[in-house]
Write a structure and sequence with these properties.
This protein is mainly alpha-helical. It folds into 2 domains: 124 residues; 134 residues, Alpha Horseshoe (Serine Threonine Protein Phosphatase 5, Tetratricopeptide repeat). The protein is 81% helix and 4% strand. α2 packs antiparallel against α3 and α5 runs antiparallel to α6. The protein is rod-shaped and about 130 Å long.
């Protein structure tokens, strides 16, 4: 009888120790591994319940047989006491199984919460589809932040820092959807520092490589201003003529016409 109770208790203890490290590490499992671990726990609980039911039936049947074969009342009372003790032990085992079931439910909930949170985090890191210069492009989160940080430096008047930031951005993301704007604002950082020899090539890249960019017209206008700064009136006229011809409906073209008239 004692060995029976010890065996049942041992089975429950094994189940508890099997579960303890599992729920502490559930967040580290791959999705399939976690599901397999949960199914394994469920199977263990079912096996414990089956063993308990079987042992209750067998033990009670055995004890009853012994009672029937013994005429001694003292022995009968002892056996009855053992039955009650067995029932108490079985009740305790069922309580432990209930604890395992509760822990299993908590593990499943934590697993669900973990993968929901992981999915949300991954979505934030995935490239976002954005419309830039009339085109839909994929933009990484760090790419967006790097560009915005460089532009913020320019707008704050930190032109040398903005110069470095835009150059760094273009080295890191040469094919970015923001490339045209990055070259344009890089030209502006040079222009703001009165360095037209560097500003003009930056504007020229916008005009030649990104003629459909919304910044192309402004790049031509600013390039003409730089050329005038360098006393290159012929170059300035050519830039203004190209501006008016290529982008006649733009605001920059309207301003270009006024400047062209002043040059004649």
């Amino acid at each position: 009888m004692k060995s029976l109770i010890k065996s049942a208790c041992a089975a429950t203890v094994v189940a508890l120790f099997t579960f303890a490290p599992m729920h502490a590490q559930a967040a580290l499992f791959e999705d399939d591994d976690a599901r397999r671990e949960i199914l394994k726990l469920r199977k263990q609980v079912e096996e414990i319940n089956t063993r308990i039911d079987s042992r209750i039936a067998n033990s009670i049947e055995s004890i009853n047989a012994r009672i029937e074969n013994k005429a001694d009342k003292t022995s009968s009372l002892n056996l009855t006491g053992e039955i009650e003790k067995l029932r108490d032990e079985i009740a305790a085992l069922r309580g432990q199984v209930e604890i395992i079931n509760n822990e299993l439910s908590n593990a499943q909930r934590r697993q669900k919460d973990f993968y929901t949170d992981l999915d949300q985090r991954l979505r934030k890191l995935e490239p976002q589809v954005m419309t830039i210069d009339g085109k839909e492009v994929n933009v990484e989160q760090t790419e967006q932040k790097t560009f915005d940080a460089a532009l913020a430096l320019f707008k704050s008047g930190s032109y040398p820092a903005a110069d470095q930031a835009f150059n760094s951005f273009l080295q890191r993301y040469p094919e970015s959807g923001y490339a045209a704007q990055a070259h344009y604002w890089l030209g502006n950082t040079y222009f703001a520092q009165r360095d037209c020899t560097k500003a003009i090539p930056a504007y020229q890249i916008v005009v030649t490589r990104f003629p459909l960019s919304q910044k192309a017209a402004d790049a031509l206008l600013n390039m003409a201003s730089c050329q005038l700064e360098l006393k290159d009136k012929i170059g300035a006229r050519d830039s203004l003529d190209a501006l008016i011809k290529k982008y006649p409906a733009s605001t920059a073209a309207t301003m270009g016409k006024e400047r062209l008239a002043e040059l004649k």
